[in-house]
Design goal:
Elements lengths: L8 H7 L11 H21 L4 H19 L6 H9 L1 H10 L2
Organism: Funneliformis caledonium
Protein name: 6768_t:CDS:1
InterPro entries: USP8_dimer (IPR015063)
């Protein structure tokens, strides 16, 4: 049997908090950070580090939080989406705002 101690879900959720304002970094920097966080989770799994499941959980929550909560609140988010999405989004955006 393993003598490893495990953190509670509440502790892990607290560790996963991303404590920066959306505009603290550019969208590109947020995306790069997200990729690094996900790479760290993959590495923890590959090397089977102690408490790998906890590391994977925390990193996946952080990455999800950045993608679903932080980036959409970034001041440049709608501008970036509008510029990259093409005419379909442009038409939708115009209709939505009329």
């Amino acid at each position: 049997m393993s003598n490893a101690t495990h953190k509670s879900i509440a502790q892990l959720k607290k560790e996963a908090i991303v404590a920066y304002e959306p505009n603290h970094f550019s969208i590109k920097q947020w995306l790069n950070s997200t990729n690094k966080i996900l790479d760290a989770a993959k590495l923890a799994k590959e090397i089977n580090e102690n408490n790998a499941n906890e590391t994977i959980y925390v990193n996946n929550i952080r990455a999800t939080s950045i993608l679903l909560e932080i980036i959409p609140k970034h001041r440049d988010y709608h501008h970036e989406i509008y510029n990259r999405a093409g005419s379909t989004y442009s038409d939708f955006f115009k209709l939505r705002n009329t």
